[in-house]
Amino acid sequence: xxxxxxxxxxxxxxxxxxxxxxxxxxxxxxxxxxxxxxxxxxxxxxxxxxxxxxxxxxxxxxxxxxxxxxxxxxxxxxxxxxxxxxxxxxxxxxxxxxxxxxxxxxxxxxxxxxxxxxxxxxxxxxxxxxxxxxxxxxxxxxxxxxxxxxxxxxxxxxxxxxxxxxxxxxxxxxxxxxxxxxxxxxxxxxxxxxxxxxxxxxxxxxxxxxxxxxxxxxxxxxxxxxxxxxxxxxxxxxxxxxxxxxxxxxxxxxxxxxxxxxxxxxxxxxxxxxxxxxxxxxxxxxxxxxxxxxxxxxxxxxxxxxxxxxxxxxxxxxxxxxxxxxxxxxxxxxxxxxxxxxxxxxxxxxxxxxxxxxxxxxxxxxxxxxxxxxxxxxx
Length: 379
Hints:
- It contains 15 helices and 13 strands.
- By secondary structure, the chain is an alpha/beta fold.
- The protein has 2 domains: 8-179 and 362-377, Glycogen Phosphorylase B (Rossmann fold); 182-358, 3-Layer(aba) Sandwich (Rossmann fold), CATH 3.40.50.2000.
- The strands form 2 sheets. A 7-stranded parallel beta sheet has the order 3-2-1-4-5-6-7, with helices on both faces. Strands 10-9-8-11-12-13 form a 6-stranded parallel beta sheet, with helices on both faces.
- The chain is elongated.
- The two termini are 23 Å apart.
- The mean pLDDT is 93.
């Protein structure tokens, strides 16, 4: 009797945070799914990261690595050793740096297939301060090694289009939208609202990292304008990040006072989304926008910007409204339209819930990834 050979996969991530970012939540779903289907799963991640503990807790073999600049040159060799020790069929990068590293690591592994998961459009870092020189360097490094990748996984059609426009052959790119655990999101929505959130009128919310690319300053400017159009409206921002102090100064300059509440980091975010009448996503660039899918799962209409993968999630005029980026007045007009027309907001919220259930389930996302890995492992 012949015993089936167990398939092996190595995921590589470098996020060092004490909590999981969106990409790490996505990765943990893949780790759990692969383990459930009896893959041998290894995870190489940053020392002391939340991901290291979570991956270890579900049964993955975890390798904690240092990703400082002085240690980077040794990382491809270390990853190659790990992949060789586990006879990895597939090695998966989960961001720009780790995508570059796994390409180099697999150079000496003849039978190991390389997958790059791409969560953002290639030039999204310009919104975080990257200049032309840095962006040009990233493009050159990427172009020089992309031939080693067997499949690119784009999380939205916008990311796929950007990859192909940058020179990647379309047949090497597969689009797998992010997925959410709809049952858990809806269950969490029933938890008590965070301390400090007091709903005394129509509530408009923004949930996300407080970083330039998320465009939160335009939400605040929108709140200042909307206060004159819908005086009873109240506003909430849930999230933390490097822009916190600057955003509070902008709020002060717009005399928002107690009409705007900064909640800081909130987990889970479902109780905040559930408390909102409208959820706003004012991003300048967005690979997918999980918050949009979560808000839709809770039947909340979304006002977002027409950037990146947001158009894959929000159907303009059907599940929400899309406006140009960096335009607080357009945001204000869209939000005012929904607040003044509750029937329209309800109709869009219900359409959003149906769309989330059809297109953005966790099960659908994990299945597509595992099918890809199995296909590559089979050669």
